[in-house]
């Protein structure tokens, strides 16, 4: 999935990508690599670009723009990133955004309509600005400016130089000083010590006509989009050309726009690698069948999805207060720029020798990604900034706005919830189960048959009332299976008691020789003379079996049937004779998991759910009316919050790790919110929903590992904080195993989402 998730944004992306392919086809981009550098100036396609409305997409209509938002521009930049679109589009749209924020509407209109081309430096370099009665005089050289040689107008940063002592004293007194103070407050300029009443050392941002500057085109690492050396030698700049922006805003805007383009780069690399892996044959089969290749492609998808989710939110947050805006912009910039570089490198690796050739486009995308990192700074630079802002208290709550028709659902929910206020979570469940509000996603009479909007409205009303409903545990999966496949008698016997929380279920699936590979189950179920079943075998890794009243069991009823065939789904009374539950002592010293032995355990005929020999279908049941979860408003959990509280006193390398954890946590929240929004809109959730576990479980492990590491010697002592951190660290090791190992999940993602070929059938061991 790309940055945009609405139908409108998907249409915009398709239109932008289609236009780019026609206006500058891939062979035209390649030509820029293989010929002498093009003469700087206005590209042949620029008027078309303006006519399409793409130059002013993100600008107000009053300033000649399309009235859109930064998110619209991000969607377009992602598409152009996929095409490695050449020329000054990104620099011009960045300059226009800065001019708009900086209060220069006339200049904004000129860029939005295509009358002029813009560019922006990302820092002052050696540029200094001396104040004059009419404005500033510029001297020095900016850092390399992308598309600077094409630009008619360049936004430059300069450090205000100190004045001579006499002049500064004269201008730093009386009304002049007061006026300067008021100007500082109004324009949001970077702070610095005053020298004689002026802002010596402060960075100012100025819009300068390129014709007044010395501009020298440079041979860029990305030949499709050259940089330029931009110098000023006593260049006067009128006061009205000073922009009311500060360096943090420039950094945030530039970061988000480059991050959006980088999402396109990463996406191109992923698609190219996966398509190649699906057809390239070595050793008699497609290389995409090899797990090493398959996992690498799946990892690329995980990086792409995190980057897209973070850029999506950062583009929406650019009007937030500076700390919040800076936090999410830094997280997005770090993640997307790194994803572009790493995916481009991995693409070349999967392509093999072909990817190392000049003729293949892979190096073009690697060059584009590398230049972005060189201009904006490494990922750690932005992670350090994110950690600092988070340590200072910046947080980004994720809000879900429901449509107007949620009001009716809210009113109904409040009436019901008024009757359970003050109850504990278990009591709330018992009271709400008969009303359908304990599981509103289920069909009546067990739930409300609620759609996504009603489900979310109820969740929000529960939160507003300070109410929690106890978790169903394994019954979360039992109930849908019984609704879809159970007999009326089974439904009457088990459903309402399960929804009330009266029955505690365990899942008897995994076996010593069948962990993630459930099709290899060996536990046997044989018919008895009375039509019942005799169960023999062993289950393992069964959570809460020692406390469960009932279990769901998969057993083999047809030993000669292949793979998933010949399995039957049973309901088991855990007090039945012949069941031996043996708690397993885990590495933490706890016993949450169990071995369960079945020794001639007799089950009645009505213990079967669904058809005999078709239990796999029952086990994989999900209802059409799927449950919708409300994304957490705050994306940093307590473990990460504790690390952020300490971030300010940690050394740089550790702070960067904390920043990386913050990026993962916020990406998870954004992926969840994007998935929910798509469900509310009746759209199919994208890949994000499928890769959440691949991000979440290692993230939780890394949080636990760093928490223990930071304790130093105290972490070796099983007392107080050391004991808690050690337990959390050890317990976290199960997260990438339980519910399907990370490695198996990577296989599933690569096959189902990327279309890579399934693993070959295994050979017999003997």
UniProtKB/TrEMBL annotation:
<dbReference type="InterPro" id="IPR009100">
    <property type="entry name" value="AcylCoA_DH/oxidase_NM_dom_sf"/>
</dbReference>
<dbReference type="Pfam" id="PF02770">
    <property type="entry name" value="Acyl-CoA_dh_M"/>
</dbReference>
<dbReference type="InterPro" id="IPR046373">
    <property type="entry name" value="Acyl-CoA_Oxase/DH_mid-dom_sf"/>
</dbReference>
<dbReference type="GO" id="GO:0050660">
    <property type="term" value="F:flavin adenine dinucleotide binding"/>
</dbReference>
<keyword id="KW-0560">Oxidoreductase</keyword>
<feature type="domain" description="Acyl-CoA dehydrogenase/oxidase C-terminal">
    <location>
        <begin position="614"/>
        <end position="754"/>
    </location>
</feature>
<feature type="domain" description="Acyl-CoA dehydrogenase/oxidase N-terminal">
    <location>
        <begin position="6"/>
        <end position="105"/>
    </location>
</feature>
<feature type="domain" description="Acyl-CoA dehydrogenase/oxidase N-terminal">
    <location>
        <begin position="425"/>
        <end position="501"/>
    </location>
</feature>
<dbReference type="GO" id="GO:0005886">
    <property type="term" value="C:plasma membrane"/>
</dbReference>
<dbReference type="InterPro" id="IPR013786">
    <property type="entry name" value="AcylCoA_DH/ox_N"/>
</dbReference>
<feature type="region of interest" description="Disordered">
    <location>
        <begin position="168"/>
        <end position="198"/>
    </location>
</feature>
<dbReference type="InterPro" id="IPR037069">
    <property type="entry name" value="AcylCoA_DH/ox_N_sf"/>
</dbReference>
<feature type="domain" description="Acyl-CoA dehydrogenase/oxidase C-terminal">
    <location>
        <begin position="258"/>
        <end position="388"/>
    </location>
</feature>
<dbReference type="Pfam" id="PF02771">
    <property type="entry name" value="Acyl-CoA_dh_N"/>
</dbReference>
<dbReference type="InterPro" id="IPR052161">
    <property type="entry name" value="Mycobact_Acyl-CoA_DH"/>
</dbReference>
<dbReference type="InterPro" id="IPR006091">
    <property type="entry name" value="Acyl-CoA_Oxase/DH_mid-dom"/>
</dbReference>
<comment type="similarity">
    <text>Belongs to the acyl-CoA dehydrogenase family.</text>
</comment>
<feature type="compositionally biased region" description="Low complexity">
    <location>
        <begin position="168"/>
        <end position="180"/>
    </location>
</feature>
<dbReference type="GO" id="GO:0016627">
    <property type="term" value="F:oxidoreductase activity, acting on the CH-CH group of donors"/>
</dbReference>
<feature type="compositionally biased region" description="Basic and acidic residues">
    <location>
        <begin position="182"/>
        <end position="198"/>
    </location>
</feature>
<protein>
    <submittedName>
        <fullName>Putative acyl-CoA dehydrogenase FadE</fullName>
    </submittedName>
</protein>
<keyword id="KW-0285">Flavoprotein</keyword>
<dbReference type="InterPro" id="IPR009075">
    <property type="entry name" value="AcylCo_DH/oxidase_C"/>
</dbReference>
<dbReference type="InterPro" id="IPR036250">
    <property type="entry name" value="AcylCo_DH-like_C"/>
</dbReference>
<dbReference type="Pfam" id="PF00441">
    <property type="entry name" value="Acyl-CoA_dh_1"/>
</dbReference>
<keyword id="KW-0274">FAD</keyword>
<feature type="domain" description="Acyl-CoA oxidase/dehydrogenase middle">
    <location>
        <begin position="506"/>
        <end position="601"/>
    </location>
</feature>
């Amino acid at each position: 999935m790309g940055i945009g998730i609405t139908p409108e944004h998907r249409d915009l992306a398709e239109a932008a990508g289609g236009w780019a392919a026609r206006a500058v086809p891939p062979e035209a981009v390649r030509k820029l690599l293989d010929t002498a550098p093009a003469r700087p100036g206005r590209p042949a396609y620029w008027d078309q670009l303006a006519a399409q409305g793409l130059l002013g997409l993100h600008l107000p209509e009053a300033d000649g723009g399309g009235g859109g938002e930064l998110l619209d521009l991000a969607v377009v930049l992602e598409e152009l990133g996929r095409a490695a679109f050449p020329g000054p589009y990104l620099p011009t749209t960045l300059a226009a955004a800065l001019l708009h924020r900086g209060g220069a509407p006339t200049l904004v209109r000129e860029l939005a309509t295509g009358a002029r081309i813009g560019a922006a430096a990302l820092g002052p370099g050696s540029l200094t600005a001396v104040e004059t009665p009419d404005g500033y005089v510029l001297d020095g050289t900016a850092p390399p400016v992308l598309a600077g040689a094409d630009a008619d107008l360049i936004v430059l940063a300069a450090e205000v130089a100190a004045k001579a002592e006499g002049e500064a004293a004269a201008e730093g007194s009386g009304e002049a000083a007061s006026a300067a103070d008021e100007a500082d407050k109004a324009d949001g300029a970077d702070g610095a010590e005053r020298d004689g009443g002026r802002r010596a050392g402060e960075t100012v941002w100025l819009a300068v006509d390129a014709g007044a500057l010395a501009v020298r085109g440079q041979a860029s690492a990305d030949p499709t989009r050259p940089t330029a050396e931009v110098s000023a030698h006593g260049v006067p700049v009128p006061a009205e050309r000073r922009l009311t922006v500060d360096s943090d805003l420039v950094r945030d805007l530039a970061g988000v726009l480059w991050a959006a383009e980088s999402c396109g780069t990463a996406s191109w690399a992923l698609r190219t690698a996966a398509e190649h892996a699906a057809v390239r044959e070595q050793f008699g089969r497609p290389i995409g069948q090899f797990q090493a290749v398959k996992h690498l492609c799946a990892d690329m998808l995980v990086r792409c999805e995190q980057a897209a989710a973070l850029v999506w939110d950062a583009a929406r947050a650019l009007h937030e207060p500076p700390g919040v805006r800076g936090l999410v912009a830094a997280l997005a910039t770090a993640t997307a720029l790194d994803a572009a570089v790493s995916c481009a490198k991995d693409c070349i690796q999967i392509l093999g020798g072909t990817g190392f050739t000049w003729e293949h486009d892979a190096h073009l995308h690697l060059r584009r990604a590398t230049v972005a990192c060189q201009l904006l700074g490494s990922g750690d630079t932005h992670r350090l900034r994110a950690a600092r802002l988070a340590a200072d208290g910046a947080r980004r709550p994720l809000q879900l706005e429901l449509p107007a028709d949620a009001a009716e659902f809210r009113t109904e929910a409040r009436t019901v919830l008024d009757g359970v206020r003050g109850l504990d979570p278990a009591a709330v469940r018992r009271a709400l189960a008969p009303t359908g509000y304990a599981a509103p996603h289920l069909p009546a009479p067990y739930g409300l048959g609620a759609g996504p909007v009603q489900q979310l409205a109820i969740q929000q009303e529960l939160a507003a009332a300070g109410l929690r409903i106890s978790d169903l545990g394994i019954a979360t999966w039992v109930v849908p299976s019984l609704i879809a496949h159970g007999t009326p008698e089974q439904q009457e016997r088990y459903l309402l008691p399960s929804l009330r929380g009266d029955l505690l279920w365990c899942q008897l699936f995994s076996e010593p020789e069948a962990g993630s590979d459930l099709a290899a189950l060996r536990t046997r179920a044989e018919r008895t003379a009375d039509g019942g079943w005799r169960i023999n075998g062993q289950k393992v890794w069964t959570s809460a079996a020692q406390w469960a009243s009932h279990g769901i069991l998969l057993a083999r009823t047809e030993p000669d049937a292949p793979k998933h065939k010949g399995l039957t789904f049973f309901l088991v009374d855990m007090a039945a004779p012949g069941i031996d539950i043996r708690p397993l002592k885990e590495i933490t010293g706890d016993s949450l998991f169990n071995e369960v032995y079945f020794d001639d355990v007799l089950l009645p005929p009505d213990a079967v759910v669904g058809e005999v020999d078709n239990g796999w279908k029952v086990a994989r049941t999900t209802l059409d009316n799927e449950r919708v979860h409300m994304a957490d408003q705050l994306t940093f959990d307590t473990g990460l919050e504790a690390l952020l509280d300490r971030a300010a006193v940690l050394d740089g390398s550790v702070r960067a790790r904390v920043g990386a954890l913050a990026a993962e946590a916020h990406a998870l929240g954004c992926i969840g919110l994007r998935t929910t929004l798509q469900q509310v809109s009746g759209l199919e959730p994208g890949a994000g929903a499928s890769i959440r576990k691949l991000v979440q479980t290692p993230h939780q492990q890394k949080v636990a590992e760093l928490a223990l590491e930071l304790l130093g010697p105290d972490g070796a002592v099983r007392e107080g904080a050391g004991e808690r951190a050690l337990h959390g660290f050890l317990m976290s090791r199960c997260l990438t195993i339980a519910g399907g190992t990370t490695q198996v999940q990577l296989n599933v993602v690569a096959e189902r989402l990327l279309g890579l070929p399934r693993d070959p059938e295994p050979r017999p061991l003997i």
